Fold this sequence. Notes:
The protein is α/β, with parallel strands linked by helices.
Amino acid sequence: MKIVVCIKQVPDTSDIKWTENNTIQREGLESVINPYDVYAVEFALKIKNFCKDTKITALSMGPQQAVDMLKKVIALGVDEGVLLSDKKFAAADTYATGKTIGTAIKTKLSDFDLVICGQFAVDGDTAQTGPSIANTLDIPQVTYVKEIISCENGFVTLRRELEDGEEIVKVKLPALICVLQDSFEPTRALINGVIKAQNSEIKTYGFEDLGLSAEEVGLKGSPTYVSRAFRPEKKCTECKFLESVEDLAKVLTGGQNA
């Protein structure tokens, strides 16, 4: 099986700087791997554990500093890393990001069986990029995945979370899944993995490598935009602790001011 796991760098600081287009300034910003993408990598590694003939490619779009993040997941057991990096990709919304990443997979990693994404990115929280990639690739998608149950005969069986419970889904490959965070301890890098990561070369592709027009990527290719970015004001309110259910009932029924 050939897996592409999409990972993203997110800011590891409260001192976020904004561009003139009200998007996050990522160049030179201290970053970490998006927490949901940590579990996307874990899903890929789990598949590799019970399906030995598996190759995992980690794919990211961002500035050159993302190379370090890609090498970190190679140290965990990922086989190779690919970076999409070009100033023309900057300030992309989820639609343009999905189209760029989907096109890269289609043209550079076309022999894939499964694409795995984190359900959310904590710097945007839209949950739209994964589905947008699936749309570009024209493949089925399963979102809010909690667990992989089996992978055999060209299908994967998954457990996904719903608002009112869970369901088991069987999907034909190739497909894309978006995974949620889990409670297990993520894999730790071993010395052999660290050595492999240090010696790995990260393939990098730019705008001209993908065959897209300038109007399809980055800010120009984004039908949505951020009109204003601001920090919420901190409001201090007084808290009152209630000692009993009866006191709570009085507050809720208007019998007492909180």
